[in-house]
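Reviewer comment 2.1 asked that we show a complete input and output for one of the modelled complexes. We chose the S-adenosyl-L-homocysteine case, as it is the one discussed in the main text.
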Amino acid sequence: MVHFVGAGPGAPDLITLRGAELLAKADVVIYAGSLVNPALLERCKPGCRIHNSAELTLEQVLSLMEEAERRGEDTVRLHTGDPCLYGAVREQMDALEQRGISFDDTPGVSSFCAAAAALKCEYTLPGVSQSLILARIGGRTPVPEQFSALAAHQTSMVLFLSAGMLEQVQRELLKGGYAPETPAALVYKASWPEEKTVRCTGGTLAQSGQSSGICRTALVLVGDFLRGEYTRSMLYHPGFTTGYREGQV
Ligand code: SAH
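Response of the prediction step:
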């Protein structure tokens, strides 16, 4: 059987308990070496065969999985963050289904959650933003959605895979309608020891990327949630009645 597992954003103790258990039992581990922290591999049992998928094609990954399956072994496919975001997992899952190989999926802490933790912020602030757009700018991988149209919502936004194109990001965000003074941030290697955060604005993203040297393994955050103003939540307001608590007048 193949287990897709979210490795979390980097810190080796941010994998889930289930993910760690699967990793400890696996006969074969195929990990996304460009971003998964190799410290996680210390959890593998002796004799576990470990492959770095950064050096492999989809076909090679699949044949490793097929070989393990023939031997009646368990494979862990370890993806960074949560596999459901930019993980190229769907094509693997469909190919496994075609081959009659069963698989399951264990979620992980995505880097956009670790970035919020690094900045001690909340994407959904009452009176400011109740939506979060997860996106990327088009590069070698084309983006079917019109990026500036996403920006037009001016809600909280997190951009993956875009830190190397900050000039373009800045241009498109402003074209979409964010004011140049909208707060923004770059979060490099959230949860790793070398984590770095840079606060800036929509209009200074490119310049901040240049002066900080951040151009990869980073997320771009933009939106008024990074400001200090918001209204307090109804949920914990003394006057608000919920299914669990009677409001006081
Ligand atoms: N599935 C992953 C995303 C993979 S795409 C997840 O859920 O997080 C790879 C991109 O994710 C990187 O280019 C970078 O933009 C972002 N990323 C992954 N780990 C990161 C981290 N620890 N800190 C900041 N960005 C990270």
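The CA atoms of residues 148 and 241 lie 40 Å apart. We note this here for comparison with the apo prediction described in Section 3.2.
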